[in-house]
Each structure stands twice: as structure tokens, then as C-alpha cells.
Fold:
Amino acid sequence: MDYKFALAIALPLGLAIVGFGSAMALGKAVTAAMDATGRQPEAATKILINMAAGCALIEALTIYVLVFALVLAGKLV
Structure:
């Protein structure tokens, strides 16, 4: 099997998996933050800061995978 064909199949599939995982993780983080804010409204600022930091890390991982996929896609050409 030619490695270029394998990359052409694996890259979009990998990006789709990472995108789905990122969306699920962000949804769970925001849901948990909203539940926590509902239970303790006075701690909303601390909860928001922690949620934003967690969401930034999730997004950073997604961007790293995108960059890695683009680097590998450059090898297809």
C-alpha cells in the first residue's frame, strides 16, 4: 500500500475524530461550569476563569493536531 494513499485517508479521518473529541470536551466543560455557577453564583468569576483556562488547553490541542496534519499533508504533494 502506498503511504500517500494511507495519509490521504488518515488525515481527514484523524481531523474529524479530533474535532468531534474537542467539541465533546468543550461541551462537557461548559456544562459543568454552568452547573457549578447555578449551585454557587457567588463563585461565578472563579469558575469562569477556570473554565476559560481549560477550554484554551482543549483548543490548543486541537490546533496542534491541525498543524501536524497540515505538515503531513505537505508531504502528500
In short: Residues 3-74 form a domain with the F1FO ATP Synthase fold (CATH 1.20.20.10).
